[in-house]
Structure formats: structure tokens, C-alpha cells
Amino acid sequence: MSNLLTRRLALLADAQHRPLLSGGLRGIERETLRVQADGHLAHTPHPLALGSALTHPQITTDYAETLLEFITPAEHDIADTLHKLDAIHRFSYGKLGQELLWSQSMPCQLPSEDEIEIAWYGKSNLGMLKHVYRRGLALRYGKAMQCIAGIHYNYSLDEDLWALLNHEENGDRKLTAKAYQSEAYLAAIRNFRRYSWLLMYLFGASPALASGFLRGQPHKLETLSADTLYLPYATSLRMSDLGYQNDAQSGLSPHENSLDSYVATLTRAVNQPYEPYQRIGTKRDGEWVQLSTNVIQIENEYYSTIRPKRVIRTGERPIQALCLRGVQYIEVRCMDVDPFEPVGISLETGRFLDAFLLFCALEDSPTISEDQSRLYAQNFARTVKDGRRPGLTLSRDGEEVALRDWGLALLERIRPVAALLDQARGDGVHAASLAVQAAKLDDPERTPSARVLAELRANGGSFAAFGLRQSERHAAYFRAHPANRDEEAYFGQLAAESLAEQAALERSQTGSFDDYVQAYRASNLCPNCE
């Protein structure tokens, strides 16, 4: 352990300060495709009984009309978060008829690009903005790639914990609360960059995909069966270069050495023209096809495995919120959907993520050079494509070290953090989760990616058949445990209120969509960040 981590752990172990460890919040966003009973993409609109995808706080859509996104309220304990996620699933299944929720990160068998419907949010200017943004994504990345699903893990620490560290480490020269907390979260993100390859090894669950997903693109995948491609030692093809990446965004990092640097980089990207997108233009035959011809249309288009976040206010853009009020939490975006879990993530995984992220937040975190950034990206890429290969090495401090050895050493560094969390709770759940992860490093066959391939090989090798089988199992679970009366009433009220809110928005809006987009693009992203 570094001296800084040792000091911080000792401070937080004090009985006076230990309650601060339970003051942070956890939230989950789970994406999942709606599919027909035969495992093919559903072609029905977003179910009205679920409410408005534009205004519902917990049930919305991501890219496609059939790509549901479930958003939990933030809770202090991940167990409570998962309970809320389970309730959203159970309510939703009661409104889906014979449709299923796809159990995998990589999509089911997809129809042609023309047949994949972009999510619709109604006729308000806000709804059209969201829809046109997605039209732009289709042009830039293709629709199939936008149907990939993941788990986003939102994590924060008690603001009083940051204030305590600021006081102890800076004394009379302490930074403002906003500045200290923002830079501390950025430091946590830098450590995440260093060590997130470990999450890909431990939790990656997408070593195979439907052969039609690649749409004839050249690739280096191997054939597992007539309808399935894979890599034998891959952990997460979703997070490989087959996923959501393109040349336009390739120059956007590193930028997480400070909040000012991060904000400035995204501000430039939103305002910097990109010649291939300029050739497309923003309109075709008078119809909007993308919001701008710049590197990214809006901040959310920037693809990253983790983001600093702040809850936005009405009419506010994400960068403006960060600039004005600082970082409030971090969003981990690299987690695959766990196909063996009905809600896509287990409680044990959540416990480990809490220990891992607290370690990232408390451990010393120097700034990252461009060369280091490339090395971290290389370690991540090796792990997602080849993570279970016997003898695989990663680059650490100028040396090649075995993934297994480095992983076990990292778990030892995380162990006292897990012990502190367990001390605060009075149990041993975080230590138990570490033991499960150590077993995966000792035996790669215990990893989710290996378990997926074992299931595939034992049942004919078809990714589509495996995905459908798991989806049916999960559907049976949720249908056997429907929403109770209180949950039905709660989500029914949210649905009705969201539909009414969308209708009111459409009735009351003024001005043309062209003017709305112009005003949105002209809004000052961040004072002093040009």
C-alpha cells in the first residue's frame, strides 16, 4: 500500500469517521433489447404501459426503440439498488406480453439496418433533439453497434468524507469543497484507467457474437458455429475495437488529469468540425440527419469506459453542470451484462465494485502522460481480446508481468479497503467477494466469459440459441415473481405521470426545431473553457 492509502484507511477506520463509508450512493443503469419469443428483434413501439421514454425517470430507451434502459434510484447500499432494479424488471415484464428481454450484451440476430427503428420520443423539440441525435449516431457508427447493451454503475462517496480528507491533508490551505471533490474523483478515474483491465478479466461476459452483427466488415474472429463468431480467450468483445469506437474520437484522450482539462477537451470536440461528417451535412432533403458535423454532436456521444458526472438541471448540458458545480459521482460504463443473472449484475459483483472503486478513490493517483495512457489502453485491449490466454502478460512500470500475478497483487492491495468496508457494516461480504475474484484468477474457467463459451460448446455453439435460452430462463423467473400491488401502483403512477408530462411539453412548446437546435448548439458549454 502507498503511504497515502495507509493514512486514509487509518483515518476512516476511526470510529468517529467510519459512518462516512456508508454515506455514498449507488445507482445502476441496465440496457436490454426487447426481442420476440423466437429471439429476433421486436418491431413493436415502446410499450405505452411503461410510460413515456422521454420523461419517465426509471424506464426509458437508449438508441433503438427496442433497446430498453432501466435506471434505478440512487441508494446507499448496492443490495437496495439491486432490489429496485429487480422491481423495475418485474413490473416491465408484466407489460411485455410474449416479448422477452435479451440476456446478453451483444445483440440478438438483427434485421437489416433499415429495419432497426431509432428510438422515438414524440414531437416536442426536446424529443426531436434526442431522436435526431440518434439519427446522427446511425450515420456515424451504424445501427447494429448501437444495439449493444451494458451495465452502467454509478458511484459516489459521502461529500463529508471528501471534506474530511481535504481538511486532514490540506489544513488551512484546503481547497474549496467543489475543487477538492472534483479533483479527487478525477484521481479515482485515473486509477480506474490503470486497473480497469482487471474488471474485464473478472466480469467480461461477451466472448462471442452473432455472425451477422459485423455486417460483412473485415475481422479476425474465429468461427464457432454457422451463426457464431468468437475469440477463444476473449473476455469482452463488446469492449474491443469491434464496439463503439471510430477515428473521429481517437484524439480525445488523455484529458482526466484535471476537471478543467476534461471539460476543455469535450468542449473542443463538440465545437470542432470533422470533415467526413461535414460531407454528410446536418440535413438531407430538408430533414435533419444529425445535430452537427462536429467530432461529437453532444457530450454524451464521447465514448469512455468511465465518466465524471453531475446530475443536470432542466435545460442544462452535462459539461455546464460539471463546470458550475463540480463532479458529483462517477459512472462506470465498461461492465458487460451478466447473462447468468436475471437483472444483469449480481450482488457479489456490486460488492467487489464498491471495494475496487473505493480503492481507486483512496489510493495515490499521479497524473497520466500520453505514453502511459497508451499503455493503459493497450493493457485493456489485450485483456478484452485475450484475457484468458495462458501466460498472458500486461505492461507494468516498463516490464511485462503475468495478468494472473498482477491481478492477485491488486486484490491484495484492495483487501484492506474491503476489510474497512466490512468493519463499517459488521460483516464480511466484501472480503468474500474478493475471495471469489481470486479464484477466477487462479482458474480462468470460473470467469463469466469462460462459462459462456462452455455453455455454447455444450449446446451446439450457437450464440443466438444460448442468448434465447438465458432470456427464457430470466423471463420465467420474473413472470413467477410479478410486481406486487404496491409496486404495480407505484410504477403505474410513474408511467401515467410521464405520459402526461410529455403531452404537456408538446402542447406548450413554442418555436421551430431549427431554432431550438441552433440555441442548443450556441449555448455556452462552460465559461472560461474555449
TrEMBL record:
Protein's gene: gshA
Annotated Pfam families: Glu_cys_ligase
PANTHER family reported in the protein's UniProt record: GLUTAMATE--CYSTEINE LIGASE
Gene Ontology annotations for the cellular component aspect, listed alphabetically: cytosol
Residues in Glutamate--cysteine ligase domain copies: 10-381
Entries under InterPro entries matching the protein: Gln_synth/guanido_kin_cat_dom, Glu_cys_ligase, Glut_cys_ligase
Reactions catalysed: L-cysteine + L-glutamate + ATP = gamma-L-glutamyl-L-cysteine + ADP + phosphate + H(+)
Homology family: Belongs to the glutamate--cysteine ligase type 1 family. Type 1 subfamily.
Uppermost EC category: ligase
UniProt GO molecular function: ATP binding; glutamate-cysteine ligase activity; metal ion binding
Record EC number: 6.3.2.2
Pathway named in the protein's UniProt entry: Sulfur metabolism; glutathione biosynthesis; glutathione from L-cysteine and L-glutamate: step 1/2
The protein's name in its UniProt record: Glutamate--cysteine ligase
Biological process terms in GO annotation: glutathione biosynthetic process
UniProt-listed Gene3D superfamilies: 3.30.590.20
Keyword entries, A-Z: ATP-binding, Glutathione biosynthesis, Ligase, Nucleotide-binding
